[in-house]
Amino acid sequence: MATYKICDIGFAPDASHALHSMFKIMEGRAQASWVPATLDAADVLLANVTADPLALSAWSRSGKPVIFVIDERGSFPPAPFVLRHPVRVMQLLSMLDNVTEHLREPRRQATVAPEGTCAWRVAESLRAVAMHTVERGWNVAEDAEGAHVWVGGGHAHALPATLAALREGRLALGTFQPTTDWPAAGAERLPVRDLAWYVGLAGDESLAPWLDAGAAFRLRRWPDFGRLGARVELLELAAHAAARPCTPALLASGSGQPLATVNRFLAAASMAGLLVAVPRVEAVPVASTAAAPPARGWRRFVGDLRKHLGLVA
Amino acid sequence: MNAAMRPSRVPRELARKLLETLGDVVGVKTVVLFTADGFEVASHSAEVGAPARIAAIGSSLSALGSAISAEAGLADFDCTTIQSVNGTIVITRVEGPHAMSLAVVADEAVTLGQLLWAVRRCCTALAKLMNE
Amino acid sequence: MNDVAEGEFKIVFTGPMGAGKTTAIAAISEIDPVRTEVANNDRMSHEKASTTVGFDYGRITLPGGGVVRLYGTPGQPRFRFMWSIVGRGAAGAIVLLDATQPGALVQMDLFVDAFRPLVPEGALVVGVGRTTEDGALNSDTFASRLEARGILAPVLSVDVRRKADVMLLVQTLACILETQNGNAYA
Prior knowledge:
heterotrimer, A: alpha/beta, Rossmann fold, Arc Repressor Mutant, subunit A, 41% helix, B: alpha+beta, Beta-Lactamase, five-stranded antiparallel sheet, globular
């Protein structure tokens, strides 16, 4: 049996103590053995979402898995492994088994190879700086034509033309870097989660490295397509992902969209904090969840409606 | 549409006295005068609370009456009669500067012709009152 | 049940007074909408000259001959009796809200709760207007409220005076209906 080292951060002493007790209880029941360790030595991080952002940011660069624990009413962070407080032993056991499987899969290391993942590096750099306060300084990303997007204090700032290009998916940004410069005069702001959505959509064809190809995902909230701008394929994917948890493959087959579009949608939704990763056992194939067979005439009818609305090329 | 007017500016007490005359018609249970947007202005009823709801539903029916009249190329809504298994409801527009209607609910004891005649007479009196 | 099999279906626009239901229907209807607007005496609730007391009705005829009937409800709770009348048989509902109105979140709850039982599960879209004005609530606030109540419905920032925005609401509803009915359009 494999033994993995786990470090917990951001918990009160009693909560931390309870977690350590649970590791002991799970001994012999879990797929692997879990022993507490320091941050530097750990294979897996168990983090309260309110933990030190700097430590979380440093950990995210290591590419090792992190299990987030959110409070009862907290919103889900864009991450594959999330537990809700109070954590029960069986939930933790199930989660750690998922993480064990994740660690055993050799392809995980392959997905973080630097080649061909430039777009995800932009996303990762934004994830690392998104929650920084302005007091920590500004971060800036630049595209090939010299357009800038600043991030600080939970907002992105850019000139109106740059924001328009971002909305239309025409802006290919580089990674976010610390800067001493302030946003340009005349820059407008948008919530950083909206920027995160656009950066996710501009990502690579492959599944984002922080998402698990075997996990199922569902929307916890719809994107505000009125604010973000809508595309038919994204509306369809959102409707599917809102209806039931879907693996990327199921989402592609259910919606009829290419896997690359599905991957970008999932990246955008997770970056914007709209996605929930669901343990695999809860994910069910599309066919078995369809409440009723399609009503007669539905397909033709919806097709005609979409033609009228200009949704069909 | 007429200029909006708060129901409180209508001579409610005088209107209510006019509605009482309809109560003398055999079978009449409830009489409600209401604004086009469904506010009760005055009423005469044995049942507490009923007039407010009748005012709201009556205004919808008046508006639907106007809509279907316009759709059919007729002049504006004037009166509608609803015959129920055990009673009759008459909704009539009250002429005047303020868009108002009158709803009368009667049971099976009523004679329709007698009711319509009495409602017309009451509406004429109400119109005169509103114009004063 | 809705009449999709017969080539017709019904969408209901609802929401509080002044949220833009009549405007939204007029923006996309191919016919001059049937209106039942009368003078508004209730200036305490809304500084609006007129208010719908019956229902609004508009129509879209589709290329294949199908018909979408668009209905608007009265917005004032006094006319609640009309909500179930208008909502009966609807394929979906679009709840319109004004983000600058005090109590807009409570109003959302009121209309969402009233119309969810009237439409097939999930066939509800929320459109929030005037979100960029001073003092307005952000659309995320409405989405959070629904999420906290365990309701997953799209919340979209829209300007119902713009045809494209109203179309987006209908389009979103169409995508939900299509997904619920278990197949992708091909």
